[in-house]
Amino acid sequence: MRRSMLGRLAVAACSLSLLTAFAPAAADGADSGAGRSYKKVGYFTQWGVYGRDFQVQDLEANGSAGKLTHINYAFGNVSAEGTCFTGNVPGEADAWADYARPLDAADSVDGVADTWDQPLAGNFNQLKELKAKHPGLKVLISLGGWSWSTHFSDAALTPASRKAFVASCIDLYIKGNLPQDGTRGGAGAAAGVFDGIDLDWEWPGSAGDTDTTYRPEDKRNFTELVKEFRTQLDAYARTQKRGTKYELTAFVPTAPAKIDAGFDVRRIMRDLDFVNLQGYDFHVSGEPRTAQQSALYARGDFSVHGTVEAWKRRGAPAHKLVMGMPFYGQGWTGVTGGGDGLGQPAAGPAPATWAAGYEDYKALKKLAGSGAYQIHRDRRGGHAWLFDGTTLWTYDDPQVLRAKTGYVREHGLGGAMFWSLDADTADGELVTAVDRGLRGR
């Protein structure tokens, strides 16, 4: 995945609910969540500005910015020394994209080209301009991800390492003290860009990417790390203007084994503003059989409902659970066995634009409209897939998202999160579907 956020999952079971997942959303005021302010959290990928040519300005142009409450910037890295850092290090950091790259007027949120001597350019400056147009919008730096969680365990290992790690992240991202890069960067250059920190450690206490360290004591250390972030963020907030608060969130797994290995749920939920639940990659294209990747309900398999219940059983309050939704699909080719293609043997991941077996929604929408693929739906399970007799893609479209936002409202959850904004259509179709669904429309 896209500096893939997620790994393969352990086996778990969850119960099937017979709720009508694809029933129309209730009218305004008809459900217990009427009047609530739901979180709508979209991940903006650092590297999406290159091949995909998805700029921060596109969120303004397609209307998505006004429908979001949070943007999580993916990702910030953790060094071998246990600190937050940036720079121009291939595969490890991209200061050029973050704050050095100049944008012309057409790609700038404010319609003004960057100058050669301004200290802040790149994505960070564009996010700051976007916030100026949308004062209620929060931007968080997301630390880690699948590929960049390598040194999290080391950084969280001792009280001293945790204190130093947190201080470095606050210095870099909250205080905005960027490394000097020509005329870019310097003390306070990025001050005001970020409103908090999102912890995307994949995974404390259990296996993640091949080079990611994990230890049995990660569960305790993650709890203490969250507490240290909360303490230092609150302390810095008190030095700022009255009413300043920095948010602290985390991306968390679906598998009960991973939850139990790495998360003291009751304790971390005291310090976190909310958590973004893994609501996708329940099955991935590297597996030998086709399967759902993001079903709302699934008997004896991973599902969104099963994830929500797993976190609630361990003490997480519903209003702090934000449901993850995919703006991409998992795909297989060489599918045999006939029928609708689901649950059948496959030769391997399907060819795709950026990575085999992984395709953006905007490309899958074109496949769905090509006439070559048939759209299949499991209406009780709340998921959809495309199949042309040989190739299968499992994905979420607006109809699926309407069912999921209905679930959010019905179950009193905190809102919706989606990976990732650059995979949506040019007119922001999926963000609009989530926004309308959470409004009960």
TrEMBL record:
Gene Ontology MF term list: hydrolase activity
Entry EC number(s): 3.2.1.14
PROSITE patterns: GH18_1, GH18_2
Cytoplasm listed as a keyword: no
A family per Pfam: Glyco_hydro_18
The GH18 domain, residue ranges: 38-441
Cleavable signal peptide: 1-26
Residues that span the membrane, as ranges: none
InterPro entries in alphabetical order: Chitinase_II/V-like_cat (IPR011583), Chitinase_insertion_sf (IPR029070), GH (IPR017853), Glyco_hydro18_cat (IPR001223), Glyco_hydro_18_chit_AS (IPR001579), Glycosyl_Hydrlase_18 (IPR050314)
CDD domains named among the record's database cross-references: GH18_chitinase
UniProt-listed SMART domains: Glyco_18
Alphabetic keyword roster: Carbohydrate metabolism, Chitin degradation, Glycosidase, Hydrolase, Polysaccharide degradation, Signal
Catalytic activity: Random endo-hydrolysis of N-acetyl-beta-D-glucosaminide (1->4)-beta-linkages in chitin and chitodextrins
The family this protein is said to belong to: Belongs to the glycosyl hydrolase 18 family.
Protein's UniProt name: chitinase
UniProt lineage: Bacteria, Bacillati, Actinomycetota, Actinomycetes, Kitasatosporales
